[in-house]
Known about the structure:
The protein is of the alpha/beta class.
Amino acid sequence: MSYPYVLLSAAVSLDGYLDDTGPERLLLSSPADFDRVDAVRASVDAILIGAGTIRADNPRLLVNSAERRAARVREGRPEYPLKVTVTATGDLDPGAKFWHTGGDKLVYTTDKGAERATHRLGGAVDVVPLGSDLDWRALLSHLHDVRGVRRLMVEGGGTVHTQLLRQGLADELQLVVAPLFVGDPAAPRLFGPGGYQPGRLRLTEARRIEDVVLMRYEPTAPGTGPFPAAADRHWLRTACELAALCPPSPTAFSVGAVVVAADGTELARAHSREGDDPVVHAEEAALAKIDPADPRLPAATVYSSLEPCARRASRPAPCSELILRAGVRRVVTAWQEPDTFVAGADGRGILVKGGAEVVVLPEYEDQAKAPNRHLLG
Ligand SMILES: NC(=O)c1ccc[n+]([C@@H]2O[C@H](COP(=O)([O-])OP(=O)(O)OC[C@H]3O[C@@H](n4cnc5c(N)ncnc54)[C@H](OP(=O)(O)O)[C@@H]3O)[C@@H](O)[C@H]2O)c1
């Protein structure tokens, strides 16, 4: 399953509220920040909001700058990003500005909600039922595969943001903190209670914009089991970047590997032939940097740009075996080992037989292959 890059965008008060309970929308951002948001909108393929925000704010959700819209058209993109909403009830006001401004609109809902939404909107809008419940992975996959969306901006509200973050589906959070208090417990909060991924997010930027502060965060906690989380993509990309650092060899692949604890702490990273060892493999070198008694290993994930090896001549144990011996039970990789040096290598098979989950993210295959082009003909 491939998903778009998911960017959550929100502004909050100092006490963490998205809005107050008054009839008008509370303006939290500053003028320059509204313009920044406009630029982000212009950069994406689609913008999603929950039906609650349509009902509360009646937003138009447009790219306001004519220059930015013209630039989109010059680049061969639609003038406005696709507008997307989610609803279970299908209770959508056909008079809302959302439907009468901008470009294409799309509603994701349940089978039951679809009847009501179609009835209310009169068939003029694309309504996609996703079963008895709305599954966010199915929604993202549909947006990617059917609507060609590669970058999705999510502009709330809190119910939507909370689900995407808790399910590990947000690639990035762009959070603006405004210097005011709401102080009303009945007002909507950005993030609701519940089980979030463990650990700390990575702060990638902090910027003052007039009197507000923009903070950008990336989740770091790996997914669990077969389900890829957004952080899995970030770490696999890091592994691919490490592969590019390998001294090239005519007789071995260039591979990068990272070992990450369940809370997103990086335990070790390495690449093939690093240091003074001309035959060391990336996963082997990374695991060698970790105390074998480290209690975080059983819940850790190994990211490797190439499937861990199944057989090798240069060392007694292949990397798939070393991973199992280290107690790691989850591996994320981009590329299945070709027959270049070992025919029918099946590191994945060894890992699965040993009880490990192997997740393949083929969207990184090209990046994993790039430092190995000379071996691939
Ligand atoms: N400050 C900011 O940056 C910002 C941004 C956006 C919004 N807001 C504020 O946030 C408030 C609205 O937030 P909110 O949390 O109440 O609403 P919301 O997240 O915009 O929408 C919630 C609604 O979306 C639908 N929905 C969400 N998850 C779903 C799922 N898994 N399956 C099916 N439908 C689903 C449901 O619609 P149905 O009820 O139709 O089933 C649900 O009631 C407003 O006060 C608004 O001003 C602030």
